[in-house]
Structure formats: C-alpha cells, structure tokens
Write a structure and sequence with these properties.
Helices cover 37% and strands 21% of the residues. Strand 4 and strand 5 form a beta hairpin.
Amino acid sequence: MYTFAFLRGVLELFFVGFLISVSRANIIQKRLPAQLQAPTFYTYCCPVGGQSLDPGSKAADVNSNIDKIRSGNLTLEVEAKSCKDLVCTGDSSVQICTENNQKTPGNKDLVSAMVQAISVQCFGAPTDNCGQIFHETGINVILSKKKCGS
C-alpha cells in the first residue's frame, strides 16, 4: 500500500509538470505578433514544400529580410493560386503565396509578422530558421534556405 507521503509526492510532481507545460504554451503565444495569435494562422516547420532536410537560414539573414519587408517598397500583390519571391538575403529566402482564386494584395506588417512567427516557432539553432505559415486570409509565406545573389 502506498503511503500518504508517496501519493502526495506523485500528485505534486504531476501538478508542477502541468504548470510548466501551461506556462510554456503561454510564453510561446505571447512571443508571437498580435496579428498572428491563434487561430488565425498555422505554421509548419522544415522541411516544407520540397525543401531539403538541411538546416535552415541564419537568424541574422532572417531578421534582415524582416526589416526589408517592413521598410522596403515591395510589391506584395500575388497572382491567383501562385507564389513569388519576395526578398532574399545571405542564405534566407522569403516567398509569398496565395491560395485564393483572385489576385491577392499582401500587407507588409502581416507578411513581416508571418516571417517572424516562423522564426519564433521553428527556431532550433542559430542556423535553423525555415518553415511555412498559412494565414486565414489565404496568404501563406515560405521561409527557406537559398543562396541569394549579391
């Protein structure tokens, strides 16, 4: 027969584990940009869309792409049911796609937040940033490793 102290210890261990898992989920949710709080998006980490199993892009190149999207004069409009290259820095490429049946305008704040969300959720090491994120508006963004031109 189990002693009271043993049962109490098991219950405390279970309760502490539960608190840690709930706290971690809240921390991850708080780190995401406001416009990407669940359930408006779905993120898939590498490999996606034919990407290799190689490590992803360097964090510094991803951050540079986020800055370019936020401050750049980029055309974010995407033809119906297609993708287009948006920015590429170092070894980090960003594509914007749409699943919609018509030309879809992108919003630079939303797109940069989507790249940031991939980086937050799919970060495994300083060179492990890649994935794809789908937004409820039909836009999706792919962050992948690709050798960019000068």
